[in-house]
Write a structure and sequence with these properties.
The complex is a heterodimer of chains A (about 100) and B (about 200).
Chain A lengths: L1 H9 L1 H7 L20 H10 L3 E8 L2 E7 L5 E6 L6 E6 L2 E5 L2
Antiparallel strand pairs in A: 1-2, 2-3, 3-4, 4-5
Chain B lengths: L3 H22 L10 H24 L4 H7 L2 H23 L2 H6 L4 H18 L3 H7 L1 H7 L2 H15 L3 H35 L1
The chains are: A alpha+beta (about 100), B mainly alpha (about 200).
Chain lengths: ~100, ~200
């Protein structure tokens, strides 16, 4: 019995691997998908503002961007999918900006 | 003279590095960021395996797979450091300037990574038979730095990106094995005290 418990616990990381990439919970947005502006529109807008976008995706219903902010920090940032407003910017897990 | 299986193990452990470097060659400095997670994750996994083998060997002394891996623990530990070093190299190349690295050094997710690397480096450097003979009993004490290095690695992984649960799930088995080790040890001690009081 004890061995079974140990083996089950040792398998825990594999269970974590099997779960599909869920929302991280860092930020959530609730906006009807029909009104979303699309990732290309966001990338175009913030690139014009001085951002360098390495990767963008959807997380928690928001657009999440990995890249460099206009100040040159390597960050991950969340934007609202409809208003394209900046919601959260964090650098290596350290919050640099959070919308009040 | 190394055995053939020993060369095979070193070769298998080195193979992902060849792949990572070949991918990195075609990329711009900023795109190297995408190689940080896979190299760091591999390093952490190897560190977890290396640290889990001793307690696993005590729990399952007859398991052949555990015994086989225990015989290759040095290679696994050295590979854990090797991928941590490659991970750091990619990070430095991706950042490109000391100023940029210093600017984010204060983030808990970053300094914990540097500290873990700093603890692992002397362990890898003293991993040879000769260093082991030279350091005598101090060698084992030195190698125990791998435990604080594991704690720092967990903190680094959990904090640097919104990936806390994956990091915790990876380190949970190691924590469990350590708890069992302590429980077994105190259990053995209690048994000993009982025997002494009966004497």
């Amino acid at each position: 019995m004890r061995r079974l418990i140990i083996l089950a616990a040792l398998a825990a990381p594999f269970a974590a691997l099997e779960t599909p990439a869920a929302a991280t919970g860092a930020m959530t947005c609730n906006a009807p998908k029909a009104k979303w502006k699309g990732e290309p529109a966001l990338v175009k807008k913030i690139t014009a503002e001085g951002w360098k976008v390495r990767k963008s995706k959807v997380d928690g219903g928001c657009y999440e961007v990995y890249g460099t902010d206009p100040q040159g920090n390597r960050v991950e940032a969340y934007f609202h999918p409809v208003t394209l407003e900046k919601l959260l910017v964090s650098r290596r897990g350290e919050v640099l900006f959070r919308k009040k | 003279m190394r055995s053939r299986s020993s060369w095979l193990v070193w070769g298998l452990l080195a193979a992902p590095a060849v792949w990572f470097v070949s991918v990195a060659e075609g990329q711009s400095a900023e795109d190297l960021e995408s190689l940080l997670h896979p190299t760091g994750e591999l390093s952490a996994r190897l560190l977890i395996v290396a640290l889990a083998l001793t307690p696993l060997g005590k729990l399952f002394p007859r398991a052949r797979a555990v015994r086989w891996l225990l015989g290759r623990r040095r290679a696994i530990g050295v590979a854990a450091f090797g991928y941590a070093a490659l991970h750091t190299l990619f990070y430095v190349a991706a950042m490109g300037s000391a100023d940029d690295m210093l600017a984010e050094l204060g983030a808990t997710g970053i300094w914990t990574g540097w500290a873990a690397l700093a603890l692992l480096a002397p362990l890898a450097l003293t991993s040879t038979d000769r260093a082991q003979r030279w350091l005598r009993s101090g060698w084992k004490r030195l190698q125990r730095l791998a435990y604080p290095a594991a704690v720092l690695t967990l903190a680094h992984w959990a904090l640097v990106h919104n990936d806390t649960w994956t990091a915790v799930a990876h380190f949970a088995p190691l924590a469990l094995l350590q708890i069992l080790r302590v429980l077994n040890r105190s259990g053995a001690r209690a048994g000993l005290n009982e025997r002494q009081s009966h004497a």
